[in-house]
Amino acid sequence: MGFEWLAILMFVGFFFILKSGYPVGFSFAGTAIVFGLVGTAVVAFNPARLLLLPNSWFGTIFNFTLLAIPFFVFLGTLLEESGLAEELLESIGIFLSRLR
After folding, report:
1. How does residue 34 score in pLDDT terms, banded at 50, 70 and 90?
2. Contact 34, 13 (CB under 8 A)
3. pLDDT tens digits for range 49-70
4. DSSP, res 100
5. Structural domain spans, the chain
6. Coil, helix or strand for 18?
7. Which residues have C-beta within 8 Å of that of residue 24, sequence separation ≥ 6?
8. 8 A C-beta contact, residue 75 and residue 43
9. How many whole angstroms separate alpha carbon 27 and alpha carbon 21?
10. I need a labelling partner for 10 at 20 to 30 A (CA). Which of 1, 56, 86, 89 fits?
11. What is the pLDDT of residue 91?
12. Exposure of 6 in the CB half-sphere (CA atoms within 13 A)
């Protein structure tokens, strides 16, 4: 048997930390750090692979599909805060009121 037990323990550990009252972000970070150290100790994880993370991050930054997501969220917030979203929905409701 390999190191699959680490994944199961990590899942259980995350929910234990989460149920104890810590915020989700701290629970994720704490579980990742602890099990990263455990994985390094039992030679299931090679810390040299951490050097590959910047390449992965910069590869994601230049993905235009993923860049559109924050812009859509910003546009939705802008429309909601300015009141345009409500006016737009009312106008569409009046315009399409005869259609089912």
Report:
1. very high
2. yes
3. 888 888 888 877 788 888 888 8
4. -
5. 1-45, 54-100
6. helix
7. 18
8. no
9. 9
10. 56
11. 92
12. 17
